[in-house]
């Protein structure tokens, strides 16, 4: 199936955070998340596996008990149910892949 960016809509996902659901179906979903500098992705967990690719910006990520600074080109893996969150140090965009897809985002 084809999903065109121009046909997708961005929605607020927190203070200084916007989410856009991209291609999805079956058991896989791609989501773009844009952050303003200083915005926070609060600590949370969910039953989905998640891969994150940093398209732009700089983020301080916490996954479980580990905290690291990541920037454009870096990627992260979050196993199901592990607490994770981030602080945006320089405005940027994350591309998240979830399996199974996040029904709560649809």
UniProtKB/TrEMBL annotation:
Residues 32-90 form the Cupin type-2 domain. InterPro entries: Bacilysin_H2HPP_isomerase (IPR052535), Cupin_2 (IPR013096), KdgF (IPR025499), RmlC-like_jellyroll (IPR014710), RmlC_Cupin_sf (IPR011051). This is Cupin domain-containing protein. PANTHER family: H2HPP ISOMERASE. It comes from the Bacteria. Coiled coil: none annotated. Pfam families: Cupin_2.
